[in-house]
Design a protein that fits this description.
The complex is a heterodimer of chains A (289) and B (282). Chain A has 289 residues and is α/β, with parallel strands linked by helices. In chain A, 35% of the residues lie in helices and 25% in strands. The chains are: A alpha/beta (289), B mainly alpha (282).
């Protein structure tokens, strides 16, 4: 029986002289795990390695107990994997049904009747049943994202690697996605890369923050919020000592950083904790450390 | 997205991890899809309509049918020549689709081996060959009648099935070169340029590819078809050579090299033995 986990040890991916993923050591089990990080942090590179699209430069990687460096084990792994790429190209002349059906064949589903049934199921699941016959070039950006999500769900995979699945979705569709992903995460490993801290708060049991190719945080969303406990305050005027600030809709200035004495502290969010971890001054602090 | 709870997948999907891979079944499933897309491609349909008009045009005075020779040439394959750049292009576009559309991230993490995809692309050319065979059959019956007797100045000439096989085989060969080009390129424009250079007259090799030494002989019906057998061998060799080149993209096993050698041998044999002594390719 295979181990239902992802394990990686000192995993690296190097392009030229740059380590895009610079020694990740993690173990991820069933449930929804969020991967946060700024642009260029190495999230997509890591996701592509987990999806067996990219080979690591060095380090050890096991997916569901299988070694993707071994050809046979990689093929077996791919049978149990669903991957939604970040910005894929589509076969724009295909209809949504034809495209997902094509991917289903590549997933080794050869029985036409069973395959079509599963294609209809996943298209219904992402709310595209009504537009299954429309060509992809005529679908909106959000609908295309859902086509990409649908193909990842084919065959009910044990491991789902979803790279920015809620990007380009409208608020209602994001809610639907959360409902879908949380249901899937009850029995499977669902790894979600996102910029949406609200999605992480609503969906993930665990959050990993990446920066410069490394994991700089690995805990629960509540703990990520707690990083900013006592470090978020509001004031009527902008405080120059704050690392970050913005003007709220109520006309106050919301600050993140080291508060002055007697500051009016407020409850932090995941975003506050995240900004403290990866914001510009946080980077300076890490270099100094 | 659906508001309903997550529905269980079909039994076959649930057994995904336990499925035994069946390469032949996967190859055919993909070949059926690719074949259907090839036949339904607007450019391919246009090419077939063009070939039909060319073949059937003599009855309407659309072509100079000197001594019945043009009919014979068209039915023996020449009728597909104007369509060949398009056939090449459509096959090339299909084979390069994943890279042209930047959709590799959908394809790469799938268990189906890339070599099976190339094999399926080559198998799908059978649909193009069948379409060409059907068109040839209809044109033959329309022009020569069901007894396959062609009336020419020199008398009556009975068409041989081997002669009629040249056209469909030519279509498959051209398409195989399209798959070869598409397997190794990522853009459409080299295919367009290549198609025009390779398959539009007056390319010097075009005559032999289409009709072997039957081109000059077509006007002397007593010699027509004399070396059709060797021409078919040569055409098959070319198709096999192109297929081996395409397969080599993802499959470096010795059997592919053997396939290439066999294709090259058949091509050389067809070329050498299909030509009359001192024959020329014009």
């Amino acid at each position: 029986m295979t181990q239902a986990t992802i394990t990686m040890s000192d995993l690296r991916k190097r392009y030229g002289t740059t380590d895009v993923v610079a020694g990740m050591t993690l173990s991820i089990g069933p449930g929804v795990t969020g991967l946060l990080g700024p642009n260029g942090a190495g999230k997509t590179t890591l996701m592509r390695m987990l999806a067996t699209v990219l080979a690591p430069t060095s380090g050890d990687l096991r997916l569901l107990g299988l070694d993707p460096a071994d050809r046979d084990e990689r093929t077996e792994m791919r049978r149990r994997l669903g991957y939604m790429p970040q910005e894929p190209g589509f076969h724009r002349h295909f209809t949504a049904f034809e495209f997902v059906d094509y991917i289903a064949i590549l997933k080794e589903m050869t029985d036409t009747r069973e395959r079509h049934r599963d294609v209809r199921r996943v298209l219904e699941l992402v709310g595209l049943g009504d537009v299954a016959g429309q060509r992809i070039r005529k679908l909106s950006g959000g609908m295309r994202r859902r086509v990409a999500l649908a193909q990842a769900l084919l065959g009910d995979p044990e491991l789902l690697v979803l790279d920015e699945p809620s990007a380009a979705l409208d608020p209602e569709q994001r809610m639907r996605f959360r409902e879908l992903a949380s249901g899937l995460g009850q029995e499977r490993i669902v790894l979600v890369s996102t910029h949406q801290t609200e999605d992480v708060a609503a969906l993930c049991q665990r959050v990993i923050v990446m920066h410069d190719g490394r994991a700089v945080f690995d805990d629960t969303p509540a703990q990520l919020s707690a990083l900013a406990h006592g470090r978020v305050w509001i004031a009527d005027q902008r405080d120059p000592r704050a690392q970050l600030w913005w003007r709220t809709a109520e006309g106050h200035h919301r600050h993140v950083g080291d508060p002055p004495p007697a500051a009016q502290l407020v409850e932090p969010t995941i975003e506050d904790g995240y900004l403290l971890l990866v914001g510009p001054q946080a980077a300076d602090a890490r270099v100094a450390a | 997205m659906s508001t309903t709870s997550i529905t269980p997948p079909p039994a076959a999907a649930q057994d995904a991890g336990a499925r035994q891979p069946r390469p032949a079944a996967m190859r055919w499933a993909l070949a059926r899809v690719e074949g259907r897309r090839l036949l339904m491609h607007p450019l391919f349909m246009l090419a077939m309509v063009g070939a039909a008009i060319l073949a059937l045009g003599s009855g309407n005075g659309w072509k100079a049918n000197v001594g019945g020779g043009a009919d014979l040439m068209d039915l023996a394959g020449w009728g597909f020549v104007p369509a060949s750049p398009v056939i090449f292009l459509v096959a090339c576009l299909a084979a390069s689709r994943a890279r042209r559309d930047a959709a590799q991230d959908f394809h790469r993490p799938q268990p189906l081996a890339p070599r099976l995809r190339t094999q399926a692309a080559l198998l799908s050319l059978g649909w193009a060959g069948l379409a060409a065979a059907a068109l040839t059959a209809v044109a033959t019956v329309a022009i020569a009648g069901s007894d396959l007797l062609l009336v020419v100045d020199a008398g009556r000439y009975r068409l041989q099935p081997w002669e009629l096989a040249q056209g469909p085989l030519y279509v498959v060969t051209i398409a195989a070169f399209g798959v070869l080009a598409g397997t190794w390129t990522s853009h459409a424009y080299p295919a367009v340029i290549g198609a025009l250079i390779l398959f539009l007259p007056p390319a010097p090799w075009l005559s032999w590819i289409v009709l072997g030494d039957g081109v000059p002989a077509a006007f002397d019906v007593s010699q027509a078809g004399a070396s059709v057998g060797w021409h078919l061998v040569g055409l098959t060799g070319l198709a096999v050579l192109a297929a081996a080149g395409a397969l080599a993209r993802h499959d470096r096993r010795a059997r592919i090299a053997l396939l290439a050698v066999a294709g090259l041998g058949a091509t050389i044999a067809g070329l050498a033995l299909g030509l009359p002594p001192g024959g020329v390719l014009t």
